[in-house]
């Protein structure tokens, strides 16, 4: 699709193709099993407990508002997003945190803008029209700004790598989120720089985080609504 080629490059999971898609799909699938998305194994209850924790947080918040009309979308987005944040980034934010509010805004608006920009996939010359040009600028600028946030979160977790042994990397026994899993995978493959450059470079890292957070939140929220 031209729009995604032009604006986002072929990285991440959603827009990946060929060997990159296969490798990243394998990586994400193994991460989800590690985090508890499996019916068997020692981690089988881990993901369920995380989900229940944020379900109860949502219920508690609604009960605390009292018997007044309320649109549950925003508190639902926070509770669901917090669970996804822990899986992807290894951290979550408070309801009033400005960074979290901004990420939610970009996620919600970005989904709508991608829909508006759909015709660019078939009529790329439309990008020169003001309507589509503004949409593309919003998406591209938003991508760059969110990647700065991701870079900071990654930097905050890189100390974790220094605390691990070679055996820890081989077994992934201390991995608790996607960022740690990606860093661990990159560390395991550091003696094969071609593989790291092809599948585990920084650009791929940032786009993968964006896909897992954005698509995970949007699709699950749409299902619940």
Protein architecture, described:
The protein has 225 residues and is an all-alpha fold. 71% of the residues lie in helices and 0% in strands. The longest helix has 33 residues, at 130-162. It is globular and about 55 Å long. Residues 1-7 have low confidence and may be disordered.
Class of secondary structure makeup: mainly alpha
What is the count of helical runs? 10
Strand composition percent: under 5%
Shape: globular
The biggest beta sheet is recorded as: none
Percent helix:
over 70%
Low confidence ranges: 1-7
Overall average pLDDT: 84
Strand tally, please? Answer: 0
- How would you spell out the order of helices and strands? HHHHHHHHHH
Radius of gyration, in angstroms, nearest whole number:
19 Å
Distance between the termini: 29 Å
Keywords: Iron, Metal-binding, Monooxygenase, Oxidoreductase, Signal
Family: Belongs to the cytochrome P450 family.
GO molecular function: heme binding; iron ion binding; oxidoreductase activity, acting on paired donors, with incorporation or reduction of molecular oxygen, reduced flavin or flavoprotein as one donor, and incorporation of one atom of oxygen; steroid hydroxylase activity
Signal peptide: 1-18
């Amino acid at each position: 699709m031209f729009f995604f080629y032009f604006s986002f490059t072929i990285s991440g999971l959603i827009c990946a193709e060929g060997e990159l898609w296969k490798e990243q799909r394998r990586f994400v699938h193994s991460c989800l099993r590690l985090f508890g998305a499996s019916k068997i194994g020692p981690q089988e209850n881990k993901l369920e407990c995380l989900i229940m924790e944020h379900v109860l947080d949502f219920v508690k918040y609604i009960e605390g508002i009292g018997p007044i009309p309320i649109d549950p979308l925003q508190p639902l987005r926070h509770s669901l997003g917090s669970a996804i944040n822990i899986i992807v980034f290894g951290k979550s934010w408070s309801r009033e945190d400005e960074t979290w509010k901004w990420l939610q805004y970009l996620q919600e608006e970005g989904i709508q803008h991608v829909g508006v920009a759909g015709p660019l996939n078939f009529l790329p010359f439309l990008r020169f029209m003001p309507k589509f040009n503004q949409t593309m600028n919003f998406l591209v600028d938003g991508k760059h700004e969110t990647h700065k946030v991701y870079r900071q979160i990654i930097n905050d977790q890189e100390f974790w790598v220094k605390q691990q042994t070679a055996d820890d990397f081989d077994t992934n026994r201390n991995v608790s989120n996607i960022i740690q899993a990606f860093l661990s995978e990159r560390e395991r493959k550091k003696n094969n720089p071609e593989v790291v450059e092809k599948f585990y470079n920084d650009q791929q890292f940032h786009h993968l985080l964006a896909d897992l957070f954005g698509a995970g939140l949007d699709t699950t929220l749409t299902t619940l609504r």
